[in-house]
Amino acid sequence: MKNNWIRNNIKIDTLPEFRKAVSIKKSIKKATLFVTCIGLYDAYINGKPVTNSMFKPGYTDYYKRVQYQTYDVTNRLVSGNNIFSFLLAKGWASSEHFSWCKHPYYDDTYLNVEIRIEYQDKTKELIYSDESFDVYTSKIISSEIYDGEEQDLRIIPKYVGKASKFDFKIRMVKQEGEEVIEDEIIYPRNIFTTPKNELMIDFGQNFTGNIVFEIDGKEGEILSFLPAEVLTKEGNFYFDNYRDAKSYFKYTLKNGKNILRPLFSFQGLRYIKLVDIPSNFNISCVKGHVIHSRLERTCYFDCGNEKINQLYHNIIYGQLSNYLDIPTDCPQRDERLGWLGDAQVFVRTASINFNVKKFFKKWLHDLNLGQHENGSVEGSAPIIKKSVREISSGWGDAITICPYEIYLAYGDKKILKDSLPHMKKWVEYIRKQGSNEYLWDSGFHFGDWVSLDAPYGSYIGATDVRLIATAYYAISTKILASSLKILGKDSTEYDNLYVNIINSFQDKFLKDGLPIGEKAIEGSAKEQTGYTQCALSLIINFDLGKKEDIKKQTDALVELIEMNGMRMTTGFIGTPYILRALTKGGRSDIAYKLLLQEKAPSWIYSINKGATTMWEHWDCINDKGEFWSPNMNSFNHYAYGSVFDWIFNYAAGINPLKPAYEEVLIKPYVSKDLGHLDVKYKTKFGLLCVRWYFQDNATIYEISIPKGIKARVEINNSCYNLEEGKYMFSHI
C-alpha cells in the first residue's frame, strides 16, 4: 500500500463514515481491497460487511508501524454502482482516554484505502483514498475501548462534505497477527433484582466480549447498561474495580426491530446492570458474544478432581479473555495493556493450550520495536507515549523468554533470529547496571508482584528485588547463549558471562547454599529478604545454586510452606516456579498438596468463591467477603494460570526434548487425589495422548504417540524408547 491518507475535517457529532462510489461496467477477473487506518475501522460494500473480524487493523506500536488487511472482494461487486464505505473509531491509536495518558499516539482517526480491479479484458483500475471520498455521519455517537459505546438507531446517516488529504507517512505492514473474532455465544443464566433494587443479568461466566440485544423497539426508548465481574457480599452491583473505565453502553431505539451491539468497544464482565430498559425488554433478547484472537485449541485436559477441571476451565477462559490481538493483563479496567511480566510467566502454558505462534510473532515485533537504544525494555508492549517507563527484571526479560519459549513450542528459528539482536541489547543493558557487571543490584523492580509475604496492601513482595533481578539476568543470558548456538553462532562470550553471573549470585545472595535473610512468614516481613518461597523457587528452578545444595534448598522451601499452613506466599514471579522447584527437588508430594490446597492463598480458593476465570490476587475476595483494593483487583487476570504448564509437564509428564515435540520425555507424576488424568495435545505431527488411572491395586498408563515423534517413557524407574503407536503400562 501507498501512503494515501485521508481524514474528516468537518465537525460532526458522530463517528465518521467515508464512502466511495465505484462504477463497474465490465466483467471482473479479480477485485482486491486493501485497508488500514489510525484507529479502528469496519469496511462495507453495498451495505454488507467485508469481513466478520473485529478491531482492525489491530493494536501495534503506531509510532513505528500499522498493519493493513487485504480482502478478495471479487464476488461482492455488481454491475453498475458499488458503494464502498468505511466507519472509523478512535480505538487504541487515538482515544482521548487510553492508558494513563491523553492521546497516546494521535489526535484523530485517519483512513487509507486502495482498491485494485483487474478486468477480464486485462485492463486494470486503481482507486486510492483521496478528496473524492465522501464523509457521512453515522449511527454511532461515541465509542472508545475503555468507555463503551453510544448509538442512536434513529439517525439516518447524511452527507456532510468531502474527505481531506493528510500528508502522513507511516510504515504499513501486511497483517501479521491473528484476526479478532466472535467465537462463542453465552446465554444468560439468570435475571434478578439486587437488595438495592438493581436489575441484573448473570451470564454465569466471566468473559471478554460484548452484549447483543434484539428488541422490537419504540421510537426514542433507551436501553443502557454497565458491566460487572462480581457482586458485593450483600449481592449488589460492584463496579469500583473498573477504575476510570466508564464501560457504559447506551442505545436509543428506532421503531421496529433493533439489533444493538457495539462495534468498537469490548468489556470484561460476567454481569450487567440494566440502567435504562425499553418496554418490550425480556431476557430472551439478550446474549453475550465472546471475543478473542482466532486461536486453534491444541490441548484438552480432564481429571477425576472436578475442582482441578474447573481450574483448567478458568485458565482457558482467562487466556482467551486476555488474548485479544495482544496479551493483555486484564480485559475490564482502564488498562488492558500488554504487560510483559504477565506474558512471560504464562507463555509456556499459552503455547500448550493454543497455537499462539502467529499471535506472538506479531506482538514480539512490537516488543522489539519498543526497545530503547540503550537496550532497556519498558513494562508493556506495544509501547505507549507516556508509559510508566519503569524498567524491571521479570518484565523486560520477556524479550528473551517469550521468543525462546515460542521457538521451543514450534521449532521456528526465524523467531529466534528476529529476536536475537534485541536479546543481546537487553543483556548488555543489564550488564551496565550498577557497579558489578555480574549482578543486577540497582534500579526499580516490580519484584514478586502482589505476593502475600509482605504487609497487606503492598504490591511488591518480601523477596529481595536484587536477588530476583540477578536471577533473571542469569536466565536471560543463558537463553541468549542457547539461541546463539541454535543459530550457529559463537556463544563463548555469553557462556562465560553466565558462569560469572552464577558465581556472583552465589557469593552475594547465598550462604551455605541457602538464601541470605530472615525467614519470612505470611504478613510478617517488614523489609525485603532473600529467604522466601519465591527466592528458593527461583534458585532451584534456575539452577542458581550448587547441585549438591538442591536437597537443602528444597527442605527449606518445604519448611516455609509448612510454616504457612501448607500454603504459598508467592506472587507473579514465584508462583510459576514453586511446583516445579518442589518436583525438581524430589517433593512432588508437596507440589500436589499446594495444587490441591483450598485455603487462601491457593488456586482452588477462588474456585470455591465461584471464580470462572483466574484472579489477579490470591485474595481478591477474602474470607469475610471483602474486596482487595479496587485500584488493582481484576477477576480475570491470567498470570496464575501458569500452573497448568506444571500439570502438563509433570502431572501428565509431557516434556519436549527437542523443539516442536519432535522428541519428548513422558514421565508422569501421579496422585490418587486426581483420580485419573487424561491429556490430549495436538502437535504438528498429530495427537500426543497421555492417560493414567487406578485400577484395583495398579496404576495404568495409556500413551499414544503419533508418527514423527520419538518418546522416552519413564515409569517406575523403567525406561522405554518408543515411536508411533499406542501403548499400555501397568505398575503395582
Features:
732 residues, ten-stranded mixed beta sheet, seven-stranded mixed beta sheet, 13 helices, 23% helix
What's the arrangement of secondary structure elements?
Blueprint: E1 5-7, E2 17-24, E3 28-38, E4 40-45, E5 48-49, E6 66-72, E7 80-89, E8 110-119, E9 124-128, E10 134-136, E11 140-144, E12 148-152, E13 159-162, E14 164-166, E15 172-174, E16 180-186, E17 190-193, E18 199-217, E19 222-228, E20 248-252, E21 256-260, E22 267-276, E23 286-293, E24 296-297, E25 299-303, H1 306-322, E26 323-324, E27 326-327, H2 340-353, E28 354-355, H3 357-369, H4 398-410, H5 413-431, H6 465-486, H7 492-509, E29 510-511, E30 514-515, H8 533-541, H9 550-563, H10 575-584, H11 588-596, H12 603-608, H13 644-651, E31 654-656, E32 663-666, E33 676-683, E34 686-695, E35 698-705, E36 710-715, E37 718-722, E38 725-731
Parallel strand pairs: 6-15, 12-20, 32-36
Antiparallel strand pairs: 1-8, 1-14, 2-7, 2-10, 3-6, 3-8, 4-5, 4-7, 8-9, 10-13, 11-12, 16-23, 17-18, 18-21, 18-22, 18-23, 19-20, 19-22, 24-28, 25-33, 26-27, 29-30, 31-32, 33-34, 34-35, 35-38, 36-37
Helix count, DSSP H or I runs of 4 or more residues: 13
Low-confidence stretches: 522-526
Radius of gyration using CA atoms only: 27 Å
Number of strands: 38
Tell me the distance between the termini. 66 Å
Strand content: 25-35%
Largest sheet: 10 strands, mixed
3D shape:
globular
Helix-strand category: alpha+beta
In helices, the fraction of residues equals 10-25%
The pLDDT mean sits at 95
